[in-house]
Design brief:
The chain has 277 residues and is mostly helical. The protein contains twelve helices and no strands. The protein has helices spanning 2-9, 13-39, 42-62, 66-87, 92-113, 122-126, 134-153, 155-163, 165-170, 175-216, 220-245, 249-276. Helix 3 packs across helix 10 (175-216), helix 7 packs across helix 10 (175-216) and helix 10 (175-216) packs across helix 11. The longest helix is centred in the C-terminal third of the chain and has 42 residues, at 175-216. It is globular and about 55 Å long. The relative contact order is 0.16.
């Protein structure tokens, strides 16, 4: 019965949009997430994602598209955090924590003072990939192309900065500008992923696929490829699984990712033990 319902649902626009959105989110998360994990900037990404909540609240108050507000605040947060971290004017974790808490506080206050009924925040906090519209798919595709273009043009420089920014600086690379570009790309991917898994769970989708890629490969391009494949399996598999289980898609996607990561880690370690013996 559930299989027939799924086959019927696949004929509707909302399910097709969800599948397309899953692939686009998987691509953006795999590319930017690989740099973020290698550079150990996951916590910084958390500050950006929660800073974006301030934009959501402000957009609701102004009566505009919430994702526009989230994108604006996410990019501003990325630039501000990058500049503070690079300038080392204060500890990075303290700065990120401030953006994390302040973004959530501002967002809640804007929503509280917005006239009328309070909006349903569950899709933004925990995600609902089935609500992605065709217009959002177009924006996702445009941002995915932007990330692909920037990554292709600046691949070697971004890799150098991700692995060792001091060495990159000695080679004469503009480390500050590259870091800002990387974090802006990251902020764009985060806002796009909010629709799939929400602000609370976005870090998982940003880190799990690259960790799977790093477990399976060493060369950075292969890491990204494996990260994309695993991210696509996680998002689409989680979407189908949530449909069969009648559960929210965001948490199911994240938990499926954790299971796949655990299985991959076990297989890799087992193969290493066997080969060493």
């Amino acid at each position: 019965k559930k299989m027939n319902e799924l086959l019927t649902a696949l004929q509707y626009d909302f399910m097709q949009n969800a599948l397309l959105g899953s692939l686009l989110v998987a691509f953006m998360g795999a590319v930017t997430g690989t740099f973020v994990v290698i550079k150990r900037l996951v916590f910084l990404s958390g500050g950006i994602s929660h800073g974006a909540f301030a934009g959501l609240g402000a957009a609701y108050f102004l009566g505009i598209n919430p994702m526009i507000g989230a994108m604006a605040f996410a990019v501003l947060s990325a630039v501000a955090i990058s500049r503070v971290v690079l300038g080392q004017s204060q500890p990075a974790d303290a700065t990120i924590g401030l953006f994390w808490a302040t973004g959530m506080a501002i967002g809640v206050l804007f929503i509280f003072i917005t006239p009328g009924f309070a909006p349903d925040l569950m899709p933004y906090l925990f995600g609902d990939i089935l609500t992605i519209s065709r217009e959002q798919i177009v924006w996702m595709a445009a941002f995915a192309l932007m990330i692909l273009f920037l990554t292709s043009m600046l691949f070697r420089q971004l890799v150098a900065v991700s692995f060792d920014d001091e060495f990159a600086r000695l080679r004469g690379l503009p480390v500050g500008a590259l870091m800002v570009i990387l974090m802006v790309m990251n902020s764009v991917a985060i806002v796009m992923m909010i629709q799939a898994v929400g602000i609370i769970l976005v870090l998982a989708l940003l880190t799990i696929p690259p960790l799977i890629g790093l477990a399976l490969a060493i060369e950075i391009r292969m890491v990204m490829l494996y990260a994309f494949i695993s991210a696509a399996l996680i998002t689409i598999g989680g979407l189908f699984l949530s449909f069969f289980l009648d559960m929210p898609s965001g948490p199911v996607i994240v938990l499926l990712g954790m299971v796949i990561l655990g299985v991959v880690k076990i297989i890799v370690r087992t193969r290493r033990l066997v080969s060493s013996n």
